[in-house]
């Protein structure tokens, strides 16, 4: 499954649709403005909140939290000691870890579990400016969760670049 994501979706208070490979709207990213912490909601086409994404308050390192129905699904933070490429660790609530690595700011990275590819995020497939694709490789993977992971790591990488 391939999805198209507008690159400007990281603007808080702005809403953006994520489309499938046929151009049909699938998910709405609702950026929540005027909040103390960075917050997004990933909604379906009927407006139901599928995933809630927010920045963890009072964390030593920037951490994003992904929740579904009020329950934590995952925590995302930059991996320590990643010298050559951007690396992020996604820790799922059951202790499973996903590895996100690549050129995050260039929108060229992958999400893997135990060396197995789950999703590829890339601008190369698309000709629309300021758009990147999220290609969910495994049929049994949760597309909403993988899109939320992509949103989080891009947001964390952008914040880190602004702070430098």
UniProtKB/TrEMBL annotation:
It holds the Pfam family LOR. SUPFAM superfamilies: Tubby C-terminal domain-like (SSF54518). Gene3D superfamilies: LURP1-related. InterPro entries: LOR, LOR_sf, Tubby-like_C. Belongs to the LOR family. This is LURP-one-related family protein. It comes from Streptomyces cylindrosporus. The lineage of its organism: Bacteria, Bacillati, Actinomycetota, Actinomycetes, Kitasatosporales.
